[in-house]
Amino acid sequence: MTTHRSTPSERFDRNVQRRSAQVLKQRVLEQQREEFEKALAWAAEQDAIERAAALIVSARRRYLLGYGKSLAYASMLATDLSAGLSGVHLVGDGSLRALDVLGDIRQGDLLVAVSMSRYRRETVDVATAYERHGGDLVLITDADDAPLTAVATTSIVIGTESASYASSPTSVVLALHLLATLTIASSKGAGRRLHVRDELAAELGLYAENDDQN
């Protein structure tokens, strides 16, 4: 899969500028429907997500890496994985420095890097160094010839074509949802961890929906 690479301003000029809201909305909806159907077919036929899930489950420590918009995807995946797995850490949001991760790579560690066009240099440099120093790398990207595909242990390549100025998140979110689901389903201690978290959340009163029950 090779994604047409263009900048947000180029996509704005091509797709958005001088179009009525009604026409633009219809175009985006039609394009998203087409992309989602492609993503469903791809997920059903390919085993890349299963391979990545197996690596995540078997890892001792899991680091999720992303910068820019990809940080949002990495953060979402980290949140979903940490609900059922221990040893899940997000890199790139300022709470954990990449230098600290690179300086303490151990056997059984895994880096999951989210790198979408236009491919932030920080992600490429950190993930390349991680692999060079002996760590395993799972790559989530949008083209077969994207940076890091040559060094990744396994890659999930997702289409992000869009009729908007911004790359579409639809297929990315679907793939991340499947990846988290398959990973947690394969983890022996996930059920117990989820139950404990639910009990602690109720004890701490984290959610407003519990107010009516008190």
By CATH, the superfamily comes out as Glucose-6-phosphate isomerase like protein, domain 1
The tally of strands reads 5
Strand content: 5-15%
Task: Quote the CATH topology.
Answer: Rossmann fold
The chain-level structural class is alpha/beta
SSE succession: HHHEHEHEHEEHH
Overall form:
globular
- For the termini, the CA-CA separation is 52 Å
Organism: Actinoplanes xinjiangensis
Protein name: SIS domain-containing protein
Domain SIS: 52-190
GO molecular function: carbohydrate derivative binding; DNA binding; DNA-binding transcription factor activity
Commentary on this structure:
This is SIS domain-containing protein. GO terms for molecular function: carbohydrate derivative binding; DNA binding; DNA-binding transcription factor activity. Strands 2-1-3-4-5 form a 5-stranded parallel beta sheet, with helices on both faces. Helix 2 (21-45) packs parallel to helix 7. The radius of gyration is 19 Å and the shape is globular. The chain is an alpha/beta fold and 214 residues long. It starts with 7 loop residues before the first helix and ends in a 10-residue tail after the last helix. It has helices spanning 8-16, 21-45, 48-58, 69-82, 98-102, 121-132, 170-186, 190-204; strands at residues 61-65, 88-91, 109-115, 136-141, 154-157.
